Amino acid sequence: MIEIQSSDTILDLKSGRLIGSHLKRTTTTIGDLRNYFKDRTALNRMDPDQAVYWVEMEENKQKEGEEGGLFFGISHLCCGTVGDEFFMTKGHVHNKFDTAEYYWGIKGTGLLLLDNLKGSSRLIEVKPGAVLYIPGRTAHRLINIGNEELAVGAVWQTISGHNYGRGAQLFHNRVTKVGNSYQVTEA
Ligand SMILES: [Fe+2]
Questions:
Q1: How many A from CA of 54 to the centre of ligand 1?
Q2: 139 burial class (0-12, 13-18, 19+ CB within 10 angstroms)?
Q3: How far is ligand 1, taken at its centre, from the CA of residue 99, in Å?
Q4: Which of 25, 37, 175, 184 has its CA 20 to 30 A from that of 86?
Q5: Separation of CA 93 and ligand 1 centre (Å)
Q6: CA-CA distance, 143 to 91, in Å (whole number)?
Protein backbone atom coordinates (compact mmCIF):
# COMPACT_ATOMS: atom_id res chain seq x y z
CA MET A 1 0.00 0.00 0.00
CA ILE A 2 1.48 3.35 -1.04
CA GLU A 3 0.53 6.48 0.85
CA ILE A 4 -0.60 9.29 -1.43
CA GLN A 5 0.65 12.69 -0.31
CA SER A 6 -0.22 16.15 -1.56
CA SER A 7 2.56 18.63 -2.23
CA ASP A 8 3.47 21.11 0.50
CA THR A 9 3.56 24.04 -1.91
CA ILE A 10 1.27 25.18 -4.70
CA LEU A 11 2.26 27.74 -7.32
CA ASP A 12 -0.79 29.79 -8.28
CA LEU A 13 -0.09 30.28 -11.97
CA LYS A 14 -2.40 33.30 -12.28
CA SER A 15 -0.90 35.45 -9.53
CA GLY A 16 2.54 33.87 -9.41
CA ARG A 17 2.14 33.52 -5.64
CA LEU A 18 3.21 30.46 -3.71
CA ILE A 19 0.70 28.92 -1.33
CA GLY A 20 1.96 26.72 1.46
CA SER A 21 3.02 26.52 5.07
CA HIS A 22 6.78 26.32 4.56
CA LEU A 23 7.60 29.53 2.74
CA LYS A 24 9.99 32.37 3.42
CA ARG A 25 9.99 35.83 1.91
CA THR A 26 12.78 38.39 1.49
CA THR A 27 12.01 41.98 0.46
CA THR A 28 14.51 44.33 -1.21
CA THR A 29 13.79 48.05 -0.86
CA ILE A 30 14.86 51.29 -2.50
CA GLY A 31 17.26 51.75 0.42
CA ASP A 32 18.86 48.38 -0.26
CA LEU A 33 19.43 49.38 -3.90
CA ARG A 34 21.20 52.67 -3.25
CA ASN A 35 24.32 51.60 -5.15
CA TYR A 36 22.53 50.03 -8.08
CA PHE A 37 20.50 52.76 -9.79
CA LYS A 38 22.27 55.50 -11.71
CA ASP A 39 20.13 58.51 -10.72
CA ARG A 40 21.08 59.00 -7.05
CA THR A 41 19.16 62.29 -6.82
CA ALA A 42 15.92 60.60 -7.86
CA LEU A 43 16.63 57.67 -5.55
CA ASN A 44 17.27 59.92 -2.55
CA ARG A 45 13.85 61.54 -3.08
CA MET A 46 12.12 58.15 -2.75
CA ASP A 47 10.99 56.35 0.40
CA PRO A 48 13.91 54.05 1.36
CA ASP A 49 11.40 51.52 2.71
CA GLN A 50 9.53 51.22 -0.60
CA ALA A 51 9.68 47.64 -1.84
CA VAL A 52 11.22 47.12 -5.28
CA TYR A 53 11.04 43.34 -5.29
CA TRP A 54 10.44 40.41 -3.04
CA VAL A 55 11.40 36.78 -3.38
CA GLU A 56 9.43 33.92 -1.92
CA MET A 57 11.02 30.53 -1.55
CA GLU A 58 9.93 27.11 -0.51
CA GLU A 59 11.73 26.36 2.73
CA ASN A 60 13.27 22.95 2.48
CA LYS A 61 16.01 21.34 4.47
CA GLN A 62 18.66 22.32 1.94
CA LYS A 63 21.33 24.81 2.92
CA GLU A 64 23.10 27.22 0.61
CA GLY A 65 26.54 25.92 -0.24
CA GLU A 66 25.58 22.24 -0.01
CA GLU A 67 26.00 20.05 -3.04
CA GLY A 68 23.23 18.12 -4.68
CA GLY A 69 20.10 20.11 -3.79
CA LEU A 70 17.91 22.62 -5.56
CA PHE A 71 16.17 25.82 -4.49
CA PHE A 72 12.82 26.95 -5.89
CA GLY A 73 11.74 30.57 -5.70
CA ILE A 74 9.55 33.23 -7.28
CA SER A 75 10.75 36.81 -7.75
CA HIS A 76 8.08 39.52 -7.70
CA LEU A 77 9.45 42.72 -9.20
CA CYS A 78 7.27 45.81 -8.74
CA CYS A 79 6.45 48.22 -11.52
CA GLY A 80 8.24 51.57 -11.37
CA THR A 81 11.33 53.62 -12.12
CA VAL A 82 14.13 55.40 -10.30
CA GLY A 83 14.49 58.52 -12.45
CA ASP A 84 14.01 56.96 -15.88
CA GLU A 85 15.59 53.60 -15.01
CA PHE A 86 13.17 50.71 -14.66
CA PHE A 87 12.92 48.82 -11.38
CA MET A 88 15.34 45.90 -11.47
CA THR A 89 16.84 43.27 -9.23
CA LYS A 90 20.37 43.64 -7.84
CA GLY A 91 21.53 40.94 -10.19
CA HIS A 92 24.30 38.53 -9.39
CA VAL A 93 26.69 35.87 -10.52
CA HIS A 94 26.92 32.62 -8.64
CA ASN A 95 29.66 32.06 -6.08
CA LYS A 96 30.01 28.64 -7.66
CA PHE A 97 30.79 30.42 -10.87
CA ASP A 98 30.01 27.75 -13.45
CA THR A 99 26.54 26.81 -12.19
CA ALA A 100 23.53 27.57 -14.41
CA GLU A 101 19.93 28.41 -13.55
CA TYR A 102 16.45 28.31 -15.09
CA TYR A 103 14.00 31.21 -14.96
CA TRP A 104 10.49 31.20 -16.38
CA GLY A 105 8.01 34.00 -16.82
CA ILE A 106 4.71 33.76 -14.93
CA LYS A 107 3.18 37.24 -14.97
CA GLY A 108 4.02 40.63 -16.44
CA THR A 109 6.50 41.86 -19.01
CA GLY A 110 10.20 42.28 -18.50
CA LEU A 111 13.71 41.71 -19.66
CA LEU A 112 16.44 39.39 -18.48
CA LEU A 113 19.83 41.07 -18.75
CA LEU A 114 22.71 38.64 -19.15
CA ASP A 115 26.34 39.73 -19.04
CA ASN A 116 29.27 37.39 -19.57
CA LEU A 117 31.56 39.82 -17.68
CA LYS A 118 33.81 39.99 -20.71
CA GLY A 119 32.01 42.87 -22.38
CA SER A 120 29.20 40.92 -24.03
CA SER A 121 25.61 41.48 -22.90
CA ARG A 122 22.25 40.31 -24.16
CA LEU A 123 18.61 40.89 -23.26
CA ILE A 124 15.90 38.24 -23.40
CA GLU A 125 12.21 39.11 -23.32
CA VAL A 126 10.37 37.81 -20.27
CA LYS A 127 6.66 37.10 -20.60
CA PRO A 128 4.30 34.46 -19.20
CA GLY A 129 5.47 31.04 -20.30
CA ALA A 130 8.93 32.13 -21.49
CA VAL A 131 11.60 29.60 -20.46
CA LEU A 132 14.97 31.23 -19.87
CA TYR A 133 18.22 29.35 -19.47
CA ILE A 134 21.00 31.25 -17.71
CA PRO A 135 24.36 29.65 -18.39
CA GLY A 136 27.09 29.51 -15.78
CA ARG A 137 29.66 32.31 -15.57
CA THR A 138 26.95 34.83 -16.46
CA ALA A 139 25.61 37.77 -14.44
CA HIS A 140 21.79 37.92 -14.50
CA ARG A 141 19.28 40.62 -13.60
CA LEU A 142 15.52 41.04 -14.10
CA ILE A 143 14.04 44.35 -15.26
CA ASN A 144 10.32 45.18 -15.17
CA ILE A 145 9.41 47.17 -18.30
CA GLY A 146 5.65 46.58 -17.99
CA ASN A 147 2.73 48.21 -16.22
CA GLU A 148 2.21 45.48 -13.63
CA GLU A 149 4.21 43.26 -11.33
CA LEU A 150 6.70 40.94 -13.03
CA ALA A 151 6.65 37.45 -11.51
CA VAL A 152 9.41 35.05 -12.52
CA GLY A 153 10.11 31.54 -11.25
CA ALA A 154 13.62 30.23 -10.70
CA VAL A 155 15.36 26.96 -9.92
CA TRP A 156 19.03 26.97 -8.96
CA GLN A 157 21.50 24.68 -7.29
CA THR A 158 22.01 24.85 -3.53
CA ILE A 159 25.75 25.09 -4.13
CA SER A 160 25.40 28.15 -6.39
CA GLY A 161 25.29 31.00 -3.86
CA HIS A 162 25.00 34.66 -4.79
CA ASN A 163 27.68 37.24 -5.52
CA TYR A 164 26.18 40.71 -6.02
CA GLY A 165 29.50 42.23 -7.05
CA ARG A 166 29.67 45.95 -6.57
CA GLY A 167 26.22 46.91 -7.77
CA ALA A 168 26.18 48.01 -11.38
CA GLN A 169 29.77 46.90 -11.87
CA LEU A 170 28.58 43.44 -12.90
CA PHE A 171 26.57 44.82 -15.80
CA HIS A 172 27.62 46.88 -18.80
CA ASN A 173 24.12 48.07 -19.77
CA ARG A 174 21.11 49.84 -18.29
CA VAL A 175 17.48 49.87 -19.42
CA THR A 176 15.60 53.16 -19.22
CA LYS A 177 12.05 54.27 -19.96
CA VAL A 178 11.43 56.34 -23.07
CA GLY A 179 7.75 57.17 -23.63
CA ASN A 180 5.91 53.85 -23.66
CA SER A 181 9.03 51.93 -24.62
CA TYR A 182 12.58 51.42 -23.42
CA GLN A 183 16.11 52.02 -24.51
CA VAL A 184 19.35 50.29 -23.64
CA THR A 185 22.36 52.41 -22.76
CA GLU A 186 25.86 51.68 -21.59
CA ALA A 187 26.15 51.60 -17.79
FE1 LIG B 1 21.10 33.14 -9.95
A1: 15
A2: buried
A3: 9
A4: 25
A5: 6
A6: 10
**H or E element in which residue 10 lies:** strand 9-11
Which domain does 94 fall in, by range? 9-186
Q: What is the pLDDT of residues 80-122, one digit of tens each?
A: 999 999 999 999 999 999 999 999 999 999 999 999 998 899 9
Q: How far is the CA of 3 from the centre of ligand 1 (A)?
A: 35
For residue 1, tell me if it sits in a domain: no
Q: How far is the CA of 17 from the centre of ligand 1 (A)?
A: 19
Task: Give the pLDDT confidence of 19-71 residue by residue, as tens digits.
Answer: 999 999 999 999 999 999 999 999 999 999 999 999 999 988 889 999 999 99
Q: What's the CA gap between 142 and 76, in Å, rounded?
A: 10
Residue 100 lies in a domain: yes
CATH code assigned at 146:
2.60.120.10
Percent of the chain exceeding pLDDT 90 equals 92
Measured in whole angstroms, the distance separating CA 126 from the mean position of its chain's CA atoms is 11
Cα-to-centroid distance, 140 and ligand 1 (Å): 7
Q: How far is the CA of 165 from the centre of ligand 1 (A)?
A: 13
* Alpha carbon of 4 to ligand 1 centroid (Å): 33
